Amino acid sequence: MDAQAALNKIYELDRAISQFNNIRNELGNYRIQTLARSGSGRWAGQQKKRYMQQLDEARLHLNQARNQVGQAISDCKSRQRSLASTIDPIEHPILSAQAWHAVIW
């Protein structure tokens, strides 16, 4: 891959990271504990137990999704560093600087 193509890919990954961060922020907006407090008073006995089990399952899935998004961000950043290291700073000093600037910031 030539230097310009590597830089373009770094920028593409940067946009993906931004989208993943938006998703992670949205996932953080879900308040399962608030649902548990507000909804559990409406149920009694077996129905309450089932409601709480479903909330626990939702909490588990939400945490798994957050972890997967975090892993995707980490993978993208790792790929960016890898691509930036392929740009020869002697041969392409400006492209190399732009690549590392995008990776670091």
Give the helix tally. Answer: 4
Structural class: mainly alpha
SSE run: HHHH
- Alpha-carbon distance between the termini? 23 Å
Taken together, the total number of domains comes to 1
Oligomer, anyone? single chain
Brief characterization of the structure:
By secondary structure, this protein is an all-alpha fold.
Description of the structure:
The structure is a single chain. This protein is mainly alpha-helical. It has one domain. Helices cover 84% and strands 0% of the residues. The longest helix is centred in the middle third of the chain and has 41 residues. The relative contact order is 0.18. The model has no long low-confidence stretch (mean pLDDT 90).
Any chance you could write out the topology, listing elements then pairs?
Layout: H1 3-28, H2 32-40, H3 45-85, H4 93-104
Key attributes of the depicted protein:
mainly alpha, 105 residues
